[in-house]
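Archive entry: two folds, one per protein. Generate the first.
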Amino acid sequence: MIIETRAYARAGLLGNPSDGFFGKTISVSVRNFGTSISLYESPELHIEPQPQDSSTFKSVYHLRDSVSMLGYNGGIPLIKAGIKKFAEYCEQNGIRLPNRNFTVRYRSSIPRQVGMSGSSAIVVALFRALIQFYKVEIPLEHLPQLVLNSETEELGIAAGLQDRVIQCYEGCVYMNFDKELIEKQGYGEYERLNPALLPKLYVAYNTHLSKVSGKVHSDVRARFDRGEAEVKDVLNQIAQRAAEGRAALLEGRPDDLHDLINQNFDLRCQIYNVSESNKQLIAAARSCGASAKFAGSGGTIIGTYRDDDMLNRLFVELKKHNARVVKPFVV
């Protein structure tokens, strides 16, 4: 029997990047793009490489373009790290795994390195497949931390919990990563919000603006760890925008998200170096009357729009910046 599992792209709606700093966020899963894992029993444990895992290239320019789009490692290190963490979790919790091996392969339609969490989607889908294959129960609230540890502890990727929470829970989720709460119970407060409460949303991405998020966050992380007052204050203000957004949605004021989203990005610019090309993408969206902020660490933006006329203007204007606009499918 072949086990098939999926995990979807995500977009940070409000609060990011405070999730990596004990803040608050609201995120949505974007089912327009996804990663699938196929896993079936086999005599030996085998990870099937995909084209992006190849070490053979047509030229130095082919290698350059491949690394720019897909990163250096492809998905195999993520698969290995996830399997290792799964095995360690089972051992630490007294779960004895049967003597069964498997072959695993992954496929992904998530644009890489543009802030839609393609890497963590691979690990989330993998954990879902391993849970089914070995008939293991892992509490949902603990799963995001396991996925995060697979990336941070095993591969040295700088990341936060937000991506893994929304990809595990799906839909629309408000998250509170209060430090004392996480230290006490091992996870934050994760509240599902009805996607029907959301205003009209668009997502636009440009793969030419891709970045590795760990590099983007490294300087702010160091400043935060040093206790710089400006960084802590701005991150607290960004987290507050998520709390205000949650209240607006629950109280039937979805239009309030327009200003909150814009403020989120403007605050981010106070402590992060944002490239001119990314700023131009934001400005182009706002010139149409839409709100706009990063969905992650750059390359993809998310915002609200008023009506179909504004959405059509977004299609036209953002195409000038090599960006594709989609209406996120959130359920």
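Generate the second and append.
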Amino acid sequence: MFNIFVGVQDTFPVLQELTLKTNDMIKGICDGQLSLQCFPNLKLLNLQFFPETSTTLPYSFIQSLPKLEKLVINNASISEIVRFEGLINEERHTSACYQLEALRLSQLPELTLKTLEPFLLSFKNLLSMEVSRCHGFINLMACSTAKSLTLLERLSIADSELIEEIISCEDEDLQASIVFPKLKYLQLSHLPSLASFSLAHHSLEFSVLQMVIVTDCPKMKNFSQGELSTPRLEHMHLTRDEDGELQWEGDLNTTIKHMFDQMNMQNSQAIEVTDQLLQLE
């Protein structure tokens, strides 16, 4: 961790990674009292453990870090990642915004689809996105956002109790396919309410998807409701549960359904054994 109180003239041109863990420092950033322009080459910013006061990062804060590549926010009362109010679209899409490649969000109970959307739409160069223990989400992103993340290579969603689907689409969004041309790795873990990657009847294309890990998603009956294309995945056995690798069943939807049926069968057998034991007592 790098603890510092910065004077107006102080600069740290060599510093590339910074972790902040104090409420006062975070409050100074969010209130606009503390500028990070003294870190012109910062690539990794890790904000941790400021759950006491609800905060939102100002847009000027992001602008002051033109080389930021990775942002980590953990255990925070943050209602939205970046505050865009009062900015026109052109101001949201400056070159500074396009540097961010990796985003990791964990234990942010106040975040929702509505508050995350503007941020994701402004950071279209994301290569990696990890979301965990964010219990405010019922769905993670809208169709328009999913279509904008054309460079995304890794997506991991874990330990979020209320998520029912990853992508949420309205009727007017169903005309065109949703394509993830670069996504290679997808992990869905410990999502007790997840029913499907998307509950809408639209086409999903994963041109280069090579690994799918599904763990402890007891309500997931299939991967998607509409047409699904995963040409690189069709000959691989990479969908897993807690007991290890599952047998590939010809396509991702069928494999997920087979996993769901197996889980229900095991649960039924366990209930039957329990009933028999109770009858013997």
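Annotation attached to the second fold: Residues 178-188+198-214+223-281 form one domain. The chain is about 20% helix and 30% strand.
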